[in-house]
Amino acid sequence: MENIEKDRIKKAYLDYVLRKGTPPASVFQLTSKLKIQEADFYRSYPNFDAIDREIWADFAREARQQAAKEPVWEQYGAREKLLGFYYTLLEMLKQNRSYALQSLRQSLKRMPGLTPRVLDDFRQDFEVFVQDILQEGKRKDEVAVRPLLQDQYPRFFWQQALFVLGFFAKDESLNFERTDAAVEKAVTLSFDLVGRNTLDSALDFARFLVQRR
Amino acid sequence: MEETPGVEPAAGNLTGSRILVSLPTTKVARAARFAKTGLKVGANYVKHYAKRAAGVTSETDDLHAANAAELYGTLSEMKGSVLKVAQMLAMEKNMLPTAYADQFAQAQYQSPPLSGPLVTKVFREAFGRSPFEVFDEFDINARQAASIGQVHFARKDGKALAVKVQYPGVADSIRSDIRLVKPIALRVMGLDEAQVRPYLEEVETRLLEETNYALELQRGTEIAAQCAHLAHLEFARYYPEYSTNRVLTMDWLTGQHLKEFLATSPTQEIRNQLGQALWDFYAFQMHTLHRVHADPHPGNFLLRADAGGTVGVLDFGCVKEIPADVYELFTALLTAEALADETRLADLLTQADVLRPDDAPTRRAFYINTMQASLELVGRPFRQHTFDFGDPAYMTALYALGDDLMQQPELRQQREPRGSEHFIYLNRTYVGLYALLTELRAVVRTERK
Questions:
Q1: Which backbone phi and psi does A155 adopt, to 5 degrees?
Q2: Is domain B116-168+212-320 annotated with CATH 2.60.40.3580?
Q3: What pTM was computed for the model?
Q4: Which of A23, A191, B68, B372 could serve as B99's disulfide partner, Cβ 3.0–4.6 Å?
Q5: What residues of chain B lie within 8 A of the CB of A180, using their CB?
Q6: B189 or A129: which carries more pLDDT confidence?
Q7: Within 10 Å of residue B278's Cβ, how many Cβ atoms?
Q8: What is the pLDDT of residue A158?
Q9: Is A38 part of any domain?
Q10: How far is B169 from chain A, CA to nearest CA, in Å?
Q11: Which SUPFAM superfamilies does the annotation name (chain B) (predicted)?
């Protein structure tokens, strides 16, 4: 029962933002439209920002679930899974492009480089997902085991996600084609970095020289 | 045995892991690469002049070769469209010193293959379904890299299909690369922008057309239907229901590329029949359709020995439509009459913008002489009933002609290209066709019926 109400409020809010381009001026404005008590709203959400956060978290969760439905998903390595996630996410953002662009452009402008508050819940979901695929990547030797450093990977990948979202928000190419290319290249690069590469050999060599003494 | 369709062989292999060469992607990075090359090329010139001042004889060819190597090194680190522009320029040997031309001829497009998820995404966008749902069978690993996309193998209702998927944002990237490369390339090659503009526009138009798969489907289907009556040719059928601007689905043709085919030592009869099929194909397009498949690269033809020799034609991405007046001019230039009658030749060359009214008489005479020599050689197959492309003397003479022309001080100093811009792709077509026929060592009936 409560969830149905929550969904209704979320939909009405989204609808309002799409129509007017800004969040409603007050909670009362929205609840009167929905013909419910203001108190009903506060039972579901503390404020509008919370709805924004939830909408973004929904994007992340649905993108993950959708991407996993692909018949070849199980054959994908970690790199492809992350790519699959991004492409599905972008697809969903495109379907809600007015909302997504408005919300991204607003919050990314305010704090470049930092994680906007609206993406807090999105981030949690995303980092869990990245942890999972990196674990799997390690089993399949796609990701190098690097104690200490690897704890920072989720944060590193989150920066990548922010880059992708920022690129999407600023992309002016037809059908966001340049974002596709950006995702492809960014993910390839990141997996080249977390995979076994020159860095590991250099560290190994350095360790060997130090140990000999 | 199944062979690869529609594409030029890629330098790297697609199976397994592919080594990624560093690819500067941002405009700034690319511009930086160019700036660096500009400096190095400049340094080569300084060395050259320093040597000359010191009385050391330095061959200008060495200098060109050094510059070309420098440029090529840079270009091969960059995305392919730049290389394609370079390749196009290289075709017009008149426009560039030979050293540049030779280096550019090696240029190959290098781009990492599209990931599985992106291919899936392109399909979802285009058809609302993943390729595994669209086709009965789909190989997510590309079989071959094409210049602006990659080719996947698929099967539907028992039919083997080739599915070409385009890299995202290729058209945009070609546009920006052209803007980026043009000023620097022009400077390095000592050309004037205003004078080469029509030529570059022609090349740019063709390059961008190649990114339009819908256009390729339409032209490929039309030309295949119009050429259906020609013997020993095979065309892939295109499937509009599985094609969009970025996805092109066609029959998977079988056969071997020229090199592998020749390695099977086919008989002279088979080689003649293949050569004849190619010649008839081009003659028909030229004289009847007035538009030609303008990319007779060996990778675009699949050869088979069955039925005495069959040619599979692939890739209608580059098609040159020939305006009526250009067609008249082009064919007139190849006739025996034009060659014999100097005033007629001068008249035709003026129409073609090779001769200009304000040219000095000596210059005029020089142009007429060189053009006469080239046309005599290049047009020779057109003036005979049958022509033996296997005659090694002929190809040697053709290459020698090119070298000779470059030795002419008048041509070397010439910094303005001449002739109609439509001739770029006509020349490319015939150069490609002659190269194929000489490799095949085919004897061909060249007389027009």
A1: -65, -40
A2: no
A3: 0.71
A4: B68
A5: 118, 121, 168-169
A6: A129
A7: 23
A8: 92
A9: yes
A10: 5
A11: Protein kinase-like (PK-like)
